[in-house]
């Protein structure tokens, strides 16, 4: 940072923030960006805004350049947004205020780590900066356990969230095998079923659950759900179901949304933080079948924050996208952008990264492609399993007795 | 097993079964018993009954002596009861039938792995065997995440369950710090608060949650709960609450029981497998405070079955109690018994094991001792933390920025 600067280089301070739902690797991206920024002579101070754009509006910054290497590494391995997060869509007035603040603090590099809503925020900030003629390298760094960012093969945070879901189903499948009944597990995912689909990674033996998987990409029809559960229960004497919190009826109305009216400033209905959907589905099974043992669990916030369950490849890629965003911003600040993860074709898992325009990842989400969803809309395909396996890392090995029967006397 | 036998030794086949709620280390006890039995010449065949006493009544046995060493080790590391489980209290008729079956299969060693209800079953079987004059070494092998068996310093399964709860709170505390609000987490524990109390192990920094812990050992008073939450929220701008599923009002009526009528054959009200209690408490906070962000999660079955989150000391001790039960049974079959874990006094964590009478662990449970519960009935004490820390193993390290403030301009 002490080097002489070329006049063509955009020089100034850097501001970085985190937004939206945390993940267990979002701090890897933050630390990746900080460590890269420390190497860049164009970047003077590295400011962290507390609680996203709320911290910018309130000028609540910390000096990340002064944190020790040991602290940075420890924070990188720590779940949830170390700078705090926010769910706030900036108004045009907010944007005007933010530029005022950025100008005052000589911020020329702005990085926003988050999902599609955060990309939208970065996009709005970028557009406003163009309009007002304030030179600003405005970058989005991807993050979401939902795995629903466009342009990306997968997103940082998903692999670890998927690992949590898979490990949970490994254990819960065995729990349900020990004490048979119907078990319904509700998994995060507003519009994209990737995380719910990851439950299928838990299967090892032919009778392993989840036996049924319901995704927001297909209409949830109660009669079909009940028929599916009855059929599986008759076959296996038990049934484990993975359900996305975002499942919706034929009209696109989220089943869970029928029980809540809470929305955030992006217009999203609050789906997590309640066991209502699971309990509703369990009650439906109890009332419409003869099955006595019916239970529901809602995995909730543990999926995105549980300490100690991390996919190594997810952690590594999360750090890489943070570093790359800074490198691209310094190299070519104009226009801003986001860093997308792409997968190379071929059998071996390999990725590469590309800079993509902000509007390509902002606002709209992507869904599970059709080839990942089974024809009966209640399972995933082998293509999905091939896609997801390398992202979660090796799962705990599950042992089972050969079970040599003792002849009855 | 091929050695010549002394005439004074009780010789015959062994029958082992698992009962009650599974844990992630219950198969360590099973495999510990199997491996020890293989060394004992008094024991011929090692039969495993499928689904506890249900398998005995139905003569559904597998020959565990034929399983390979590799399979046994894999199963030992696998969560949930590999033989299947059951929640069934035997009637006197069941016991008569069981002896008939045991006699037919020349069973002289019976081991039942489970909690207090399972110890009660073993006790009933033992008493009936005395009455009918059928010579049977009848042993209980302890297991319960609830940690509520009498005679024991702690029980196999608790350390790993507590580790899951602590890791969950480590992450959830940071999630709540990133997106502040009130978060209520409901934890397993019908009458004993040990597992809920383990949430306190997550604390590292002074403002870390859980900020409030409610245990079944103290009456849950709604007005006090609301006042506690408001006070913490005013202090920290957020509040994480750990609540046992078994919390009860001044009359001893479980709060959750007001919403369900389902009971098992031991007369226990079904508390898990529903998000109702968490949602009820969240609604109370929403309706009685101005706090907008209020969420609840119910950890559910993940606490006892999640694959990959295991306390190493718990796994080791679980195997030891299995092996010791077999050793004691062969050495002195008469009277039966259970293996209890005791802790040696002193700073260093060390345990020893004792054979105790079945009636001492059967039926009744133990509770959190008073010195583990804070005077305001909403927290645990340092004495509890000292007690619990060695049982869960080292937790993931949580990093935090020093947070050097940038002066406002």
Strand content of chain A: 15-25%
Helix content, binned percent of chain A = 25-40%
Structural class designation of chain A:
alpha/beta
Tally of helical runs of chain A: 13
Give the rounded overall mean pLDDT of chain A.
93
Largest interface: A-B, 83 and 83 residues
Structure write-up:
2 copies of one chain form a homodimer. With 409 residues, chain A is α/β, with parallel strands linked by helices. Chain A folds into 2 domains: 12-156 and 309-361, 3-Layer(aba) Sandwich (Rossmann fold), CATH 3.40.50.450; 162-308 and 368-392, Phosphofructokinase domain (Rossmann fold, 3-Layer(aba) Sandwich), CATH 3.40.50.460. Chain A has helices spanning 26-39, 52-57, 69-76, 92-104, 116-132, 158-178, 194-197, 222-236, 276-288, 302-305, 312-331, 358-361, 382-392; strands at residues 12-18, 43-49, 61-63, 107-114, 137-142, 182-187, 212-214, 239-244, 294-298, 337-343, 351-356. Chain A has a 7-stranded mixed β-sheet, sandwiched between helices. In chain A, strands 7-8-6-9 form a 4-stranded parallel β-sheet, with helices on both faces. In chain A, α4 (92-104) packs across α5. Chain A is elongated, with a radius of gyration of 23 Å.
